[in-house]
Structures are given as C-alpha cells and as structure tokens.
Amino acid sequence: MLRLDDLSFGYGRTIIGGGLTLDLARGETLALLGPNGSGKTTLFKTVLGLLPALAGRVLVEGADSAGWSPGQRARIFGYVPQSSPGFFPFSVAEVVLMGRTARLGPFAAPAAQDRAVAAAMLERLGIAHLAARDFPRISGGERQLVLIARALAQEPAILVLDEPTASLDFGNQRLILDTVRRLSGQGLSIVLSTHHPDEAFAVADKAALLRAGALLAAGPVPATLTEANLSALYGVPVALHRVGGKVLCV
Amino acid sequence: MNRSQLRSGAGICLGLGLLAAAALAAFSVGAYPVSLGELARWALAFGGESGLPEATELVIEQIRGPRVLTAMLVGASLAAAGAAYQGLFRNPLVSPDILGVSSGAALGAVLGIFLSLPFLAIQGLAFIGGLGAVGIVYGIAAAMRGRDPILILVLAGIVIGTLLGSGISLIKVLADPYNQLPAITFWLLGSLSAVNRDDLLTVLPLTLIGLAPLALLHWRLNVMSFGEEEARALGVDTTKVRLAVIAAATLMTAAVVAISGVVGWIGLVVPHLARLLVGPSFGRLLPTATLFGAAFLLLVDTLARTLAPTEIPLGVLTAIVGAPIFIWLLATSRRQWQ
Questions:
Q1: What are all long-range contacts of B14-22, with beta carbons under 8 Å and residues at least 24 apart?
Q2: Across chain B, how many H-helices and E-strands are there?
Q3: Per the count of CB atoms within 10 A, which of A132, B20, B101, B119 is most buried?
C-alpha cells in the first residue's frame, strides 16, 4: 500500500531525518512513536506531500507520489490534523463536506451525493446529532471525531492521524482509539503518531520508533515495542506490564 | 429547503430590498428632486416617451443614472473583494487594501494630478498603480518560498503600502497647494462626483472579470479558511487558488478605486454584516456581501451629495458609518472568530 523508500525529510535545506524505509500493507495500522522534536510531524507532512521529500521516495501502490497534485494526494491520504477550532463558524456538516473537495472538479461545489457521503460518515462515527452545530463550539473530542469524519469523506486509502489523542481527556482518548480500531477493522490502512506506547499496543499492528530523525526500530508491535527499545527511545527506563490482556508502560 | 438555504434566500432578498430602497432614494433626492411618481413614469416608458420635463429626464438618465450605477458597482466590488480576502487571509481585520492596492492606486493618481495629466490618464495611472503594487507584494512573497505564504504576503503588503504612502506624502509636499493639493486630498478620500457613463462602461467588464473567479472558486475558498496545510491536505491547490483570488480581487479593486478614489471601510465592514446574516459559507456570502456593498455605498454616496451644500468625501462618511458598525460587530460576534 504505502512504502517509504530511503526517505529524507526536512524544511528547505534543513534536514531533519533521513534514510527511512518503512512498509504499510493494506488494512494495517502503523503507530509512529518518538520524543518531542524527533521529526514525527515533519515526516507526516512529507508523506502527505505538504513538504517535498529531500531524497528518497514515497511510494503508493508502487507509484512514486512526487509531482502528484494536491487533489491526487487527497484521494489517497485522508489527513486528520491535531484538533484546531477552525476560523469561521462553519457547521459540522459543512466541515465534513469539505472532505469531498478532492472528489470535485476545480470549480465545482458539493452536490447531493456528496452531502449523502458526508452524512454517512457522520453516521459511521456516531456523531450525526452534531451535524447542525457550529464546529468551533463543540468539544475537543467531538472536534477530533468530526475531523476524522472529514478525512473519511475523502474516501482515502490511507488515514493519517497526527497525535489524535493529544490534548484530549481520558474518556475522549478512549473514544478516539476505539474509533481508530473500528476503522482498522473495516479494512482501512492507518498511520498515526502518538506519545503513548500504550496506545500503540491498543490499536497498532506495526510500530516505528523515530529518534532524532532516524528509525531506532520498526516492525510488528510485540517485536518492536520492547522494554529495551522504549528505554532507548525516550532515554528513561521503561517497564512493560500485562494487565487484563492489555499492555501498560511504566 | 433546509435552514442554510433559507438564510441564504433571506440574505439575498434583504440585500435586493435594501438596494432597491437605496436606488429609489438616490434617484429622487438631490439638488433637483424627482418624485417617486415621476420615477415610476420614467421607468414604465422604458426609455421611450415618458412625457416628463426634459430636465427631469436629463437628471435621471445623464446625471443620477451613471452615478447610482457606479456607486453600486464600486460598493459591490469592494465588498466582494473584502469577503474573499477575509477568508483567504483568515483574518477579520482584512480589507481589500491589505496587499497595497489602494496605496498603489493612490500613488498613481496623485502622480497624475501632480503632473497635471488629463483625467483619463489619472484614472489609468491609478489602475496601473494598484495592480503594480499588488504585483510587487506578490512577487516578494513568491520569492520567499518555504515560509508561511499568507504571513509573508501580509507583511510585504504592509511594507510596500507604507513605502507608497511616503511617496504620496512626498508628492503632497511638492504639489501646488492651491490647485493640486485640494484635488489630491479629495481623491484620497474618494468621490463619485465626477463619474460619467464612460467610466462606468470601462470599469464594469473589469469588475465582472474579477467577480467570475471568486464565484467559481467559492467552495475552495471555504476550504482555504482552514489554513494552507489543511486546505492542501484536503486537495486544494492552494498556490493556484491564492493567486487566482488575489488577481481577481486586485483587478476589481484597482478598477473601481481608479474611478472613485480611496473609499475605505466597505470591504471591511460589509462582509461581516453579510456573514452575520447568512453564515461563513462563501457561496452564500459572496452574493449577499455584493448586494449589501452596493446598497451601502449607494446610500453613503446619496448622503455625501445631499447632507451639505458641498459634497462630503465618501471616505469620511464611510468611516463615520463604518467605525460604529465595526465596534458593534466586535462586541457582539467576537466569539465566532476564535
């Protein structure tokens, strides 16, 4: 599905990371972990084509995505940014409808069928009751769900979530993770970044550990998220405990 | 019909109603009053024999007609450009002047007045000055790639605007204080007292050419209000849309400023009023703001020529009307911009 081939990324002439090779198969979920400043967001932006790759390639189904138009990318990647309140008081339904932009001609506005897709995505995430509310005025957790619905309205092959649980309370974190797991169960390929190894254990098939722009380890979650690797990644001793079928990090 | 369609319909109806009322007032009041009955007789004659005195027909067709239509055109263009810019720059304080179009047009016109050029040449210089200023600003921003393009555009606009402003000040110092300086001051405050049918017919196609891309790109402009990166990730070619919107808004603004002089506040206040009524979605906002802008300036221009024995500059009146409205907007709808 997605393959990063010896990818180097950064801003302008500043190289933040390099030599990254990663694979994501169809329907897999990949969790990207790394301390602050390790280059997670820059890597995401490079994969999404918001920043040009400094070297190497981002391959989608074997095709090099360099030189793709924003519309082409948006039909492959659905991006869920860290929750932002937006600027104007658009309704939730309108915000989700904006996800249809990539499926429209350059001068077209959404038609009835696009509204139907947007409504279906609100339904799918269980937030149809929010449709008429103003996007800036709903809670942070609700906003994150709306942004996921917007990304799903793009009908993407790969969902990319940048720290989807950051700045959310415990209940909303659970809600978002359950949603991610459900979408993964429905066959969507997912890439997300997180600060919590617990979350990777909960939702991901694969993990990639990014430290100072380089991959410390990558692969299936049990083999990658080891006490040794996590301790090296964060520079503090990490212990893993199994509690009731879940893995917790201490 | 859903709620947003209802709001949109209400906005357009209100805009049309205001515009019609403003037009009736504008045609009837003035140094030569025309009654509503006479207006109706003239309108029903469809340009044929109305039986009205020749002087009345002259006032309606030659004097007030072009002025009323020009006021509508100028107001509509400034409001449309302002509405587009507020979404593009994601800032409620943005008006069509943000990239220096007014400063450039003003410098061009002031230079023309200083050189005692004919009126048509002054208008031409103003138009070229407006386009040139925004061209320079856009060029500077485009040369600094890899940074937040919106921020660089705004900063470059401020710098170039200030630079052009000092050029205007220099010419004012050098200008003949008895003939040229009053003309310069009057132009800088805006007026429609000198417009004629030819001005109207020259500017109309330019503003329509500017309006078309804004109407066509209305959905993408909604997405642009989520910021550069999100819009790109949603599939908008932000570089192209930004260039198209800036070019369109600049063309409209430069064209109307060239015949009206600098008229502030409309492009700032009117889009907010329209948004309050029909919401932020640009497909509904653009027609409503355009109608409101037309009605607003027509009303202000009618006041400008009737309130006092001499014409009051438009910029003075729009500021007196616009500032309280804007403060009221700040007080009532501030939360919507967060």
A1: B14/B277, B15/B274, B15/B287, B15/B288, B15/B290, B15/B291, B15/B292, B15/B294, B15/B295, B16/B291, B18/B291, B18/B292, B18/B295, B19/B72, B19/B291, B19/B294, B19/B295, B19/B298, B21/B295, B22/B294, B22/B295, B22/B298, B22/B299, B22/B302
A2: 15, 0
A3: B101
State how far residue A249 is from chain B, nearest Cα, in angstroms.
33
Q: Is A232 exposed, middle or buried (0-12, 13-18, 19+ CB in 10 A)?
A: middle
Identify the domain containing residue B205 by its residue range: 3-45+53-332
- Length of chain B measured in residues: 338
The residue extents of the domains of chain A are 2-249
**pTM here?**
0.93
- Pick from B81, A143, A90, A108: nearest CA to B89: B81
pLDDT digits 0-9 by tens, A23-81: 999 999 999 999 998 999 999 999 999 999 999 999 999 999 999 999 999 999 999 99
Tell me the chain A residues in contact with residue B225 when contact means C-beta distances shorter than 8 Å.
Answer: 86-88, 90
Whether A70 and B235 lie within 8 Å, measured CB to CB: yes
CA distance A17 to A7: 8
pLDDT for residue A248: 83
Confidence of residue B92 (pLDDT cuts 50, 70, 90): confident
Read off the DSSP letter of residue A133: S
Tokens of A150: 């917007």
> Would the CB atoms of B219 and A102 count as touching at under 8 Å?
no
Asked if residues A238 and A231 have their Cβ atoms less than 8 Å apart, the reply is: yes
**Nearest-CB residue to A74 (from B4, B222, B235):** B235
pLDDT score for B338: 39
Strand A206-211 to strand A246-249: parallel, antiparallel, or no bridges (unpaired)? unpaired
Q: What are phi and psi of A58, to 5 degrees?
A: -110, 110
Judge whether B338 lies within some domain.
no
Per-residue pLDDT reduced to its tens digit, A123-145? 999 999 999 999 999 999 999 99
Task: Give the 3-state secondary structure of residue B42.
Answer: helix
Q: Cα dist. B34→A201, B46, B57, B67, B197 in Å?
A: 81, 17, 10, 15, 20
Homologous superfamily in CATH for domain A2-249: P-loop containing nucleotide triphosphate hydrolases (3.40.50.300)
In 3D space, the residue among A189, A118, A188 whose CA is nearest the CA of residue A154 turns out to be: A118
Going by C-alpha positions, the residue among A49, A69, A70 that lies closest to residue A4 is: A49
The tokens for B89 are 């720059």
Q: With contact defined as beta carbons under 8 Å apart, do B255 and B128 qualify?
A: no
Q: Are B298 and B26 a contacting pair, CB within 8 Å?
A: yes
Give the pLDDT band of residue B1 (cuts 50, 70, 90). very low
Distance from CA of A183 to the nearest CA of B (A): 20
Chain B CB contacts of A70 below 8 Å: 232-233, 235-238
Structural domains of chain B, count: 1
For position B269, which CATH number holds?
A: 1.10.3470.10
Q: Which residues of B touch A85 (CB under 8 A)?
A: 338
| Backbone φ and ψ of A103, nearest 5° | -95, 5
Residue B133 in domain: yes
